[in-house]
Specification:
The chain is mainly alpha-helical. The protein has 12 helices and no strands. About 30% of the residues are buried.
Length: about 210
């Protein structure tokens, strides 16, 4: 096992960066130009990669929520008839929470503290999964395709809900063959499968 030197163990480094540095030394190479669609795509891809990497679910939900809001706004403006938000609302109706509470309350809580600085909030990990799934469907309608992380997430999410989808689901056999039925597995097992599938897909995409 590699040993750290005393200098590394004891070092405490403080770096003071002048506020004007970012402006004074800025060049054209530092500039990022990005469209709303690209923003949502990259936010959702980042959230999926973080999720399968085992990152903090709060960080995942925050990033997924940001991408979800942009995707929902864009598809309502461009092609509202193709939005998956109403579909999710219908599916979610039987459980005793409104669509807004299910899909958007948590992201609203996580992005500000101006009106409720002392409030605690509870949400289920399945809410994050559902938020990502709806957002992936929406962004696919906008861009006309799926990125590798989004494609992996879509089939993984179906595998996690295969029991509820039932055998009438048109892709039931394909999902079961490729990923397996994950509907009765623990979340940790489901995420491990997602991580494996994403790693393999990313390697194949290179």
């Amino acid at each position: 096992m590699r040993q750290r030197t005393p200098a590394v163990k004891q070092a405490r480094i403080r770096v003071n960066i002048p506020c004007e540095l970012s402006v004074a030394n800025s060049t054209a190479m530092d500039t990022v130009r990005i469209t709303k669609k690209e923003t949502a795509t990259r936010q959702l891809d980042g959230a999926i990669q973080l999720l399968f990497a085992g990152a903090d679910i709060v960080a995942v939900h925050t990033l997924a929520g940001a991408g979800s809001k942009i995707a929902s706004d864009l598809i309502e403006l461009e092609q509202s008839e193709k939005s998956w938000d109403p579909n999710t609302q219908e599916v979610s109706a039987p459980i005793q929470r409104s669509y807004f509470q299910l899909m958007h309350a948590t992201q609203a809580i996580l992005k500000h503290a101006d009106v409720d600085p002392d409030n605690a909030h509870e949400f289920e990990i399945s809410d994050t999964f559902a938020l990502l799934a709806t957002s992936v469907f929406n962004i696919a309608k906008l861009t006309g395709g799926l990125t590798t992380p989004q494609a992996v997430y879509q089939i993984w999410y179906a595998a996690c809900n295969l029991d509820a989808l039932g055998e009438s689901f048109e892709h039931h056999a394909v999902v079961k063959d490729v990923v397996g039925d994950l509907s009765k597995r623990t979340i940790s097992y489901q995420l491990a499968v997602g991580r494996r599938e994403l790693q393999e897909a990313m390697q194949d995409a290179v």
